[in-house]
């Protein structure tokens, strides 16, 4: 099992775990001690303690039109990214009876969870794989449940829905060393404390478990970056106004993308949480999608 | 005079804003603040975004006519030069100049509905309140202006939107689709707003054949004649005329009643708005 998982991150850096080296490569994460410290909410600065509820409000507001808006804003491309994300993980096992446990955090409307179950079923004939879908927002979970009612997995033990906070899943409901795969797609940039999310991911994964994150990232190619910038700030808030009657939430969306760390920085944060990541370059610790508009970061929890 | 100076100052400001727009957008700007908002709720758009919004709101308005925000956005993004003409009309009379100076707003906070309800029968104020009651609507549900750059022109279009109900009350028209379309024809002829024209042309497509025939046979001729002959309604200070007799007012303004309309059931808009207001008050009073 473990060699297979290591195969995913082909070029694992066997970096000596000396504290000096880790500190050299480490980013300086925010370490607030009080709730009066501020953090970013898009381009605004808000008290740290408020960000969570502000984000919750955004997602309650967008929940009913979330999938439609994703299709409109990315012109359907988000489906390609998510397909690539899940297929690269190759979830499931051909061994009948072997249970692969997956947790999809900030899973909301169930795009990733459904893809995991479908991949395992179609490619590996695996009907024992389970996905625990966790989201902080009950409205998004409701949309996910609605979507799952239209599929064959409804009522089956393969999917379960939980309200939970990615920064603190809770040891009683999500014990240590439980999951084989941890996924978080387009969710981590909305979390206030990213290192906390990463350490929770590390905690709940089994040794040999895989952490995978799909998130919007930095575009380095200048022409594409300029076009993307124009598109993000001109078209997306207007699409939000027209389709959903909600400009503010989509303005937050594009601003929060700009505030998220770069690929290198995020890969270092993943490494700091204890995961083994690949080389700190495209193709190693992360794989850029469409020039860096989105990026898939992976890490493995070694023993 | 202060009104004139006020107007010139704002024009200078809007010219300055337009000049600053002439530069290209920065490549990777942290925040896209090429134009700063000129008033509360202002969302500055460049010409491409304006066009996008015009098309998008037009499509959305047709698909879902209950999206009042989209109809409002369509009006603002297609206004073009018509608002300048309306402002000119306002500046031509002392009453219109007073409106531009004082910028009265029409909602349940600024208009004392209880006082109007006690006015004698046949007065404009009483007629207005009776009409609101009969239709089950409220003046509080008008979308604020977002896409007009000049604050004064933004007020002009806001005033146009808020006075729409007065025309309903004066002409004794209900809020069903045929009557709204009749008024849209009237407004297109009278105010010259492109949005009124779009509504007038595309709106009848949503009617069935008999209603459409009735619209074109009876209401449109009224709208064309009355719209052309009426004095500039944008320059009418309605709030100063609550006690005026409705018949006298119509004579003064050069308007007359359209053919009798078919009144349908009351809408629940006013009731819902009242409930929302009560809930909002209930949640704020403990902190007060």
From TrEMBL, chain A:
Pathway: Cofactor biosynthesis; ubiquinone biosynthesis
Main location: mitochondrion
Keyword Transferase annotated: yes
Keyword Membrane applies: yes
InterPro entries according to UniProt: SAM-dependent_MTases_sf, UbiE/COQ5_MeTrFase, UbiE/COQ5_MeTrFase_CS
Positions contributing to S-adenosyl-L-methionine binding: 109, 135, 165-166
Catalytic activities: a 2-methoxy-6-(all-trans-polyprenyl)benzene-1,4-diol + S-adenosyl-L-methionine = a 5-methoxy-2-methyl-3-(all-trans-polyprenyl)benzene-1,4-diol + S-adenosyl-L-homocysteine + H(+)
GO process terms (BP): methylation
The protein's Enzyme Commission number: 2.1.1.201
Subcellular compartments: Mitochondrion inner membrane
Annotated CDD domains: AdoMet_MTases
UniProt GO molecular function: 2-methoxy-6-polyprenyl-1,4-benzoquinol methyltransferase activity
Pfam families per the UniProt record, alphabetical: Ubie_methyltran
Topological relation to the membrane, as annotated: Peripheral membrane protein
Top-level enzyme category: transferase
Keyword tags: Membrane, Methyltransferase, Mitochondrion, Mitochondrion inner membrane, S-adenosyl-L-methionine, Transferase, Ubiquinone, Ubiquinone biosynthesis
GO CC annotation, single: extrinsic component of mitochondrial inner membrane
Family (UniProt): Belongs to the class I-like SAM-binding methyltransferase superfamily. MenG/UbiE family.
Role summary: Methyltransferase required for the conversion of 2-polyprenyl-6-methoxy-1,4-benzoquinol (DDMQH2) to 2-polyprenyl-3-methyl-6-methoxy-1,4-benzoquinol (DMQH2).
Subunit field text: Component of a multi-subunit COQ enzyme complex, composed of at least COQ3, COQ4, COQ5, COQ6, COQ7 and COQ9.
HAMAP family: MenG_UbiE_methyltr
Entries under NCBIfam families matching the protein: MenG_MenH_UbiE (TIGR01934)
Protein name (database record): 2-methoxy-6-polyprenyl-1,4-benzoquinol methylase, mitochondrial
Automatic annotation (TrEMBL), chain B:
Gene Ontology CC annotations of this record: extrinsic component of mitochondrial inner membrane
InterPro entries referenced in this protein's UniProt entry, alphabetically: Coq4 (IPR007715), Coq4_euk (IPR027540)
Primary residence: mitochondrion
Cofactor: Zn(2+)
Key word Phosphoprotein present: no
Top-level taxonomic group: Eukaryota
Localization, UniProt: Mitochondrion inner membrane
GO molecular-function terms, A-Z: 4-hydroxy-3-methoxy-5-polyprenylbenzoate decarboxylase activity; zinc ion binding
Membrane protein topology class: Peripheral membrane protein
Listed pathway(s): Cofactor biosynthesis; ubiquinone biosynthesis
Positions that bind Zn(2+): 164-165, 168, 180
Keywords of this entry: Lyase, Membrane, Metal-binding, Mitochondrion, Mitochondrion inner membrane, Ubiquinone, Ubiquinone biosynthesis, Zinc
Claim: Hydrolase is one of the keywords in the record: no
Catalytic activity: a 4-hydroxy-3-methoxy-5-(all-trans-polyprenyl)benzoate + H(+) = a 2-methoxy-6-(all-trans-polyprenyl)phenol + CO2
Subunit structure comment from the entry: Component of a multi-subunit COQ enzyme complex, composed of at least COQ3, COQ4, COQ5, COQ6, COQ7 and COQ9.
Biological function: Lyase that catalyzes the C1-decarboxylation of 4-hydroxy-3-methoxy-5-(all-trans-polyprenyl)benzoic acid into 2-methoxy-6-(all-trans-polyprenyl)phenol during ubiquinone biosynthesis.
HAMAP family in the record: Coq4
Family assignment from sequence similarity: Belongs to the COQ4 family.
Protein name in UniProt: 4-hydroxy-3-methoxy-5-polyprenylbenzoate decarboxylase
Natural source organism: Serendipita indica (strain DSM 11827)
